[in-house]
């Protein structure tokens, strides 16, 4: 399994890194985020969407649980599982109604639904290094090994 870390110094650098990664994503990819509240997961997702060629305004799905961006031809499903505590609760969110094989999933608070994620999940851990600096570690796919900013 490939594991690589990058350091970004600003939200703009985080978006640029994610844009590079987003350009390499394909339908069926699942991104599982881990990181503290405010670590930059939604900012990173903005970059993914941009890299995928999507022009939608990406916002946090905290209260909606999911936001979808794009069209059936190229879609990003952005989930927030912060409040989900069990497999039973996950079923009530409609998570399984979204076409995992037809779009890219980006899942915030993925540790809360780890057992529901496929084995091929790409894991992205975001850590604070300072006010705007972040260490971003990507595990699970060699496609992103040369994505540095």
Strand order of the largest sheet: 1-7-6-2-5-4-3
Oligomer: single chain
Kindly report the average pLDDT value: 87
Broad structural category: alpha/beta
Report the radius of gyration as a whole number of Å.
14 Å
- In this structure, how is the largest beta sheet organized? 7 strands, mixed
> Low-confidence parts, pLDDT < 50 over ≥5 residues?
none
Number of strands: 7
How many individual helices?
3
Specify the helix fraction band: 10-25%
The outline comes out as globular
Order of helices and strands: EHEHEEHEEE
Strand fraction: 25-35%
Report how far apart the termini are.
Answer: 22 Å
Written overview of the protein:
The chain is of the alpha/beta class and 149 residues long. Helices cover 19% and strands 29% of the residues. It is built from three helices and seven strands. It has a seven-stranded mixed β-sheet with strand order 1-7-6-2-5-4-3, covered by helices on one side. Helix 1 (11-22) packs across helix 2 (41-51). The longest helix has 12 residues, at 11-22. The radius of gyration is 14 Å and the shape is globular.
């Amino acid at each position: 399994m490939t594991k690589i870390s990058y350091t970004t110094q600003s939200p703009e650098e985080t978006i640029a890194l994610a844009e590079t990664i987003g350009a390499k994503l394909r339908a069926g990819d699942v991104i599982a985020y881990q990181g503290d509240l405010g670590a930059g997961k939604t900012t990173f997702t903005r970059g993914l969407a941009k890299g995928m060629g999507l022009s939608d305004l990406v916002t946090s799905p905290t209260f909606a649980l999911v936001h979808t961006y794009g069209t059936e031809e190229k879609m990003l499903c952005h989930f927030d599982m912060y409040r989900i505590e069990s497999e039973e609760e996950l079923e009530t969110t409609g998570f399984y109604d979204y076409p995992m094989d037809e779009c890219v999933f980006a899942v915030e608070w993925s540790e809360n639904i780890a057992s529901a994620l496929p084995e091929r999940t790409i894991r992205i851990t975001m850590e604070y290094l300072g006010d705007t600096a972040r260490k971003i570690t990507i595990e699970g796919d060699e496609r992103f090994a040369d994505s540095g900013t």
